[in-house]
């Protein structure tokens, strides 16, 4: 009996160990989550490269619990559709402009006010500052969790008609602008025929001459082959477009704290990496455009001052709509960064 009891106890220990191992394996399998991340940029763009890095880092920092699959070139839909999908919880991550939220979250429109920044350093200081954090707080009731802000670049004007070197050269140009009221009013004020349009539709519209031009960051233009349908680029740096990496709140709320921490860490690192790639790419993109036959000119500071004066009523109109205190705080952050650089 003693031998039988010993054998039974040994068998029982083996069985318990096997059950524990099976339970651990089952728990690990249940913990693994697959998540989709979508954005509008093609694979050659710094954003696409940075988001692949985010996917890699998210896997590392969550110990394999969260596996992110990236989808570029707008294959999951327009910015607006992707944001809606993330809000609904049918898509887990999105990186891009938050402009589609501007009617509900007025503070988003602050980034559309023209001629706010002088350089990337000022932009990055504000992206990491209090105003940007406040926008993330404001979007959470819409079903979004803000993870990090990163760059896309200063917007510049391209067209197929002629070089733009002065205010009057804009008059009558049919220009695609982002579908937000500040951008529409800005371009109408300086004489353009401003047309709101989803970015996916822009290249074909330029190709058939339904549009004369568009405005976007230079690297954005080059990655999307605007040089094939636009002969002139005018460097104006009129607005800086940042992008936000956000998660679906429905998805986020299912994650354990450790995985949330890992994803936030991955997001911040990938966002800084995207800024680095943008800075490096901007250094030589003008030469690339010129090599492909595009005429590139820089609008003089005196002429930009004329345009800035022309659009002051737009800033005055939208500051109260966005929130005077919020706009002032935003401007104060820029002024602080500018002073620190002197």
Task: Give a written overview of the molecule.
- The protein is an alpha/beta fold and 342 residues long.
- Strands 1, 2, 3, 4, 5, 6, 7, 8 and 9 form a 9-stranded mixed beta sheet that branches.
- The chain is globular and about 85 Å long.
- Helix content is 50%, strand content 19%.
Structural class: alpha/beta
Please write the CATH class name: Alpha Beta
Low-pLDDT segments, ≥5 res: 17-30
Question: Total number of β-strand segments?
Answer: 9
Order of helices and strands: HEHEHEHHEEHEHEHEHHHEHHH
Q: What's a quick, concise take on this entry?
A:
This protein is an alpha/beta fold. The chain has helices spanning 2-31, 46-61, 79-88, 120-127, 130-139, 181-189, 202-207, 218-223, 249-252, 257-282, 285-291, 301-310, 312-322, 324-340; strands at 33-38, 66-71, 93-96, 144-159, 174-177, 193-196, 213-217, 232-248, 295-298.
Write the layout of secondary structure elements.
Layout: H1 2-31, E1 33-38, H2 46-61, E2 66-71, H3 79-88, E3 93-96, H4 120-127, H5 130-139, E4 144-159, E5 174-177, H6 181-189, E6 193-196, H7 202-207, E7 213-217, H8 218-223, E8 232-248, H9 249-252, H10 257-282, H11 285-291, E9 295-298, H12 301-310, H13 312-322, H14 324-340
Parallel strand pairs: 1-2, 1-3, 5-6, 5-7, 8-9
Antiparallel strand pairs: 3-8, 4-7, 4-8
Helix pairs in contact: 2-10, 4-14
């Amino acid at each position: 009996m003693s031998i039988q009891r010993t054998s039974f106890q040994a068998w029982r220990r083996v069985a318990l160990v096997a059950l524990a191992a099976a339970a651990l394996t089952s728990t690990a399998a249940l913990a693994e989550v697959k998540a989709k991340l979508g954005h509008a940029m093609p694979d050659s763009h710094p954003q696409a490269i940075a988001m692949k890095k985010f996917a890699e880092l998210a896997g590392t920092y969550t110990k394999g619990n969260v596996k992110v699959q990236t989808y570029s070139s707008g294959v999951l839909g327009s910015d607006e559709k992707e944001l809606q999908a993330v809000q609904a919880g049918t898509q887990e991550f999105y990186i891009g402009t938050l402009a589609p939220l501007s009617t509900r979250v007025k503070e988003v429109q602050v980034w559309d006010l023209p001629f706010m920044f002088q350089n990337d350093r000022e932009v990055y200081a504000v992206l990491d500052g209090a105003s940007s954090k406040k926008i993330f707080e404001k979007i959470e009731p819409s079903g979004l969790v803000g993870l990090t802000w990163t760059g896309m670049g200063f917007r510049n004007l391209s067209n197929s008609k002629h070089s733009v070197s002065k205010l009057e050269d804009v008059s009558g140009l049919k220009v695609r602008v982002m579908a937000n009221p500040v951008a529409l009013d800005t371009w109408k004020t300086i004489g353009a025929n401003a047309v709101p349009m989803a970015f996916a539709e822009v290249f074909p519209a330029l190709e058939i001459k339904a549009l004369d031009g568009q405005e976007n960051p230079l690297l954005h233009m080059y990655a999307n082959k605007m040089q094939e349908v636009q002969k002139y680029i005018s460097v104006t740096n009129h607005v800086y477009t940042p992008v936000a990496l956000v998660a679906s709140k429905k998805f986020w709320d299912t994650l354990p704290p450790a995985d949330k921490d890992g994803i936030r860490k991955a997001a911040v690192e990938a966002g800084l990496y995207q800024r680095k790639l943008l800075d490096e790419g901007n250094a030589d993109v003008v030469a690339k455009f010129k090599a492909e036959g595009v005429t590139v000119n820089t609008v003089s500071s005196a002429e930009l001052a004329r345009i800035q004066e022309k659009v002051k009523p737009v800033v005055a109109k939208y500051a109260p709509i966005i929130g005077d205190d919020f706009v002032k705080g935003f401007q104060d952050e820029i002024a602080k960064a500018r002073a620190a650089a002197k």
